[in-house]
Amino acid sequence: MNSYTSCFIGVHIPEKYQQIFEDLLEKIPQINPLFKQPYLKTPHITVCYLDKQSQDDLQRIAENVKNYLEILKGAQLQIGGFGYFREDNPRVLFLDVKCPKALKEFNEALTKSLSVYSVTDNKLPFHPHVTVAWVGDPEAQRVFKTHQPELQTLLDKIDWTFEITEIVLYGADSTKQPEYQEKLISLEVK
Predict the structure, then answer these.
(1) Which residues pair with 4 in a beta bridge?
(2) How far apart are CA 147 and CA 149, in angstroms?
(3) How far apart are CA 172 and CA 179, in angstroms?
(4) What does the pLDDT look like over 119-160, one tens digit per residue?
(5) What is the pLDDT of residues 150-186, one digit of tens each?
(6) Is the bond preceding 178 in cis, omega lying within 30 degrees of 0?
């Protein structure tokens, strides 16, 4: 039985943006190699983080999520623009997401409904984003402000708009090396 060290519910970014996303991930370390690429072959927007999960719970979680998919019917997302977390000490560089009301409602419903599966403290406000680099290293944080204009120019070129058609239960399988995120269960938004 697999155990997933990290599970979450997310909005899958459509395949038509996959190559653009991969190209973007390659360009950021060219600005400065201290900005680390996340190992993401699954670009997504995290809606609800669930932490560690057993394979036995995945289907129950997916069935629970199905109860709220109607909230997202017809919801559009717009992705693009420069953002990062922790103003004074940047940690995560991301593409910003203009969040429709439906996505916030979906997040609130899942956070409440799936709280039994979450052992982490989810007190941070919901800020939908697409991670493109980690800036956690102290040296990377030190040079971040110097490269901020280049990063902003690069990320401001991204302008993706699409309807939410798929919600995915993602996981990182602790038995695979290197550990990476994978789609475990896909749910269609109809």
Answers:
(1) 53, 173
(2) 6
(3) 6
(4) 555 566 888 999 999 897 889 988 998 999 999 999 999 999
(5) 999 999 999 999 999 999 999 887 677 666 788 899 9
(6) yes
- What dihedral do alpha carbons 157, 132, 41, 22 form, nearest 10°? 40
pTM: 0.87
Mode of pairing for the β-strands spanning 166-173 and 160-163: unpaired
* Sign (positive or negative) of CA dihedral 22, 25, 31, 36: negative
Q: Which long-range contacts (CB under 8 A, 24 or more apart) does 17-22 make?
A: 17/43, 17/160, 17/162, 18/43, 20/158, 20/160, 21/130
Spatial CB neighbours of 156, under 8 Å, sequence gap ≥ 6: 80, 81, 82
Better-scored residue on pLDDT, 63 or 51: 63
Residue written as token pair 């901020």: 148
